[in-house]
């Protein structure tokens, strides 16, 4: 009897669905009473930043490329989605090194997206991701991310709302930020930290644990100087400023990371970031089982599928997806939700241009487990005003160990 009742109800539901479908088909546009919008073009702008060391011309390699150290910063790759309603959106794709390759991927995606409604963001994400078939790497995912930002920009403008309002609304009024410090000696690092805090009012800074070359210096040198360096910054900034420590995934051996963690632990670091390479989640869990410092990582991981095992393993305390390469705004919200379910915070990786910062602010404003945002105060040069300078060809320069083998950059 219950089965018959269920089948009868299902039949009634089907009868109702048909007129509803017809009603939607007769609607003036795909968004109810909103006019239809169609993507007419997707453009890219590869922006070169001006100046090299000490404001001079950057140093050119023999093959015509420029090293990142010479230029001072990488290119910025902007994406513009144009529509037939004159509502245009902009986004930023991550600069992964072969920037022209990302441009070509965006141009390829354009053929799938032109003619589509830009407000169907999840559908268009699926169109790009699923139709690519093979899981994307940094180049493909950067392209998807930059386009996705621009789609949200169009959607917000069409609705007359800030993007954070479309993402569930605002949960905070302020976005906490931190900036990285330099300094070749422990004393210089401490002075730089004090200067940044005094100038901008930061309550947190980030630093490399050692000025020694991780690839060539002896283990003991790197470990010892890490303790001295973090200790000098702690002494300079006082007991309450948070000090994040970033190894930049340059360690292959987990024992090296464990030794550094034990050396800097007395100085109460905020977190230890990318202490080992990001490919092996079990190794990160091994590290977590041997240290008492909060661990952070994630800038080299993409999409929710890579973050799920990392989060489920409880290897991290803080996840650090990059909104310009992890899949975009909505994908990063999904990553944050998975982290929230495991009581983890999110501190977005954000080394790109001020546009990427603005995009991150919408994410941070609408995400409950957001912690802090990486930031670089736009005080001069291209960071202050995006200059109209031709982009320079750029690629990552390799790093070599003392014995000539290739290290990690």
Structure write-up:
Helix 3 crosses helix 5. Residues 1-29 and 51-72 have low confidence and may be disordered. The N and C termini lie far apart (68 Å). The strands form 2 sheets. Strands 10-9-8-7-6-5-4-11 form an 8-stranded parallel β-sheet, with helices on one face. The protein has helices at 2-26, 68-71, 99-113, 121-132, 138-159, 163-166, 186-200, 219-237, 254-264, 281-288, 303-312, 329-341, 354-365, 381-384, and strands at 39-47, 76-83, 89-93, 177-180, 204-207, 242-246, 271-273, 295-297, 318-319, 345-346, 373-374. With 409 residues, it is of the alpha/beta class. The protein has 2 domains: 39-160, Enolase-like, domain 1 (2-Layer Sandwich); 177-377, TIM Barrel.
Report the radius of gyration as a whole number of Å.
Answer: 24 Å
CATH domain topology of the largest domain: TIM Barrel
Q: Into which percentage range does the β-strand content fall?
A: 5-15%
Instruction: Tell me the name of the CATH class of the largest domain.
Output: Alpha Beta
Strand order of the biggest β-sheet? 10-9-8-7-6-5-4-11
> Which oligomeric form is depicted?
single chain
- Strands, count: 11
Q: Report low-confidence residues grouped into runs of 5 or more.
A: 1-29, 51-72
CATH architecture group name of the largest domain: Alpha-Beta Barrel
Task: Determine the structural class based on helices, strands and strand pairing.
Answer: alpha/beta
Number of structural domains: 2
- The CATH homologous superfamily of the largest domain corresponds to Enolase-like C-terminal domain
């Amino acid at each position: 009897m219950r089965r018959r009742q269920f089948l009868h109800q299902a039949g009634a539901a089907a009868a109702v669905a048909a007129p509803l479908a017809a009603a939607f088909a007769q609607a003036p546009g795909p968004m109810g009473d909103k006019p239809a919008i169609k993507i007419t073009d997707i453009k890219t702008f590869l922006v070169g930043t001006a100046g090299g060391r000490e404001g001079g011309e950057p140093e050119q390699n023999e093959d015509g490329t420029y090293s990142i150290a010479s230029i001072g910063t990488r290119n910025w790759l902007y994406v513009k989605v144009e529509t037939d309603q004159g509502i245009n959106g902009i986004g930023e794709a991550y600069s992964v090194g072969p920037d022209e390759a990302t441009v070509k991927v965006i141009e390829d995606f354009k053929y799938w997206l032109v003619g589509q409604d830009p407000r169907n963001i999840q559908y268009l994400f699926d169109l790009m991701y699923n139709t690519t078939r093979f899981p994307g790497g940094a180049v493909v995912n950067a392209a998807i991310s930059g386009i996705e930002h621009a789609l949200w920009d169009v959607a917000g403008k069409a609705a007359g709302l800030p993007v954070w309002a479309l993402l569930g609304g605002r949960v905070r009024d302020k976005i906490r930020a931190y900036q990285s410090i330099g300094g070749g000696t422990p004393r210089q690092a401490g002075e730089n930290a004090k200067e940044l805090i005094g100038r901008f009012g930061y309550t947190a800074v980030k630093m490399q644990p050692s000025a020694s070359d991780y690839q060539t210096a002896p283990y003991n040198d790197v470990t010892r100087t890490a303790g001295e360096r973090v200790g000098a910054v702690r002494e300079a900034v006082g007991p309450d400023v948070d000090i994040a420590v970033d190894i930049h995934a340059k360690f292959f051996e987990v024992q090296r990371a464990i030794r550094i963690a034990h050396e800097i632990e007395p100085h109460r670091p905020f977190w230890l970031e990318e202490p080992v390479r990001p490919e092996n989640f079990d190794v990160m869990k091994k590290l977590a089982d041997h240290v008492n410092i909060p661990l952070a990582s994630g800038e080299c991981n993409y999409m929710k599928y890579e973050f799920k095992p990392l989060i489920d393993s409880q290897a991290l305390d803080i996840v650090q997806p990059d909104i310009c390469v992890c899949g975009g705004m909505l994908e990063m919200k999904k990553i944050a939700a998975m982290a929230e379910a495991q009581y983890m915070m999110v501190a977005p990786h954000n080394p790109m241009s001020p546009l990427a910062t603005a995009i991150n602010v919408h994410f941070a404003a609408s995400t409950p487990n957001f912690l802090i945002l990486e930031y670089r105060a736009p005080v001069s040069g291209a960071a202050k005003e995006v200059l109209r300078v031709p982009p320079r060809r750029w690629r990552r320069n390799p790093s070599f160990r003392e014995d000539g083998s290739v290290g990690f950059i």
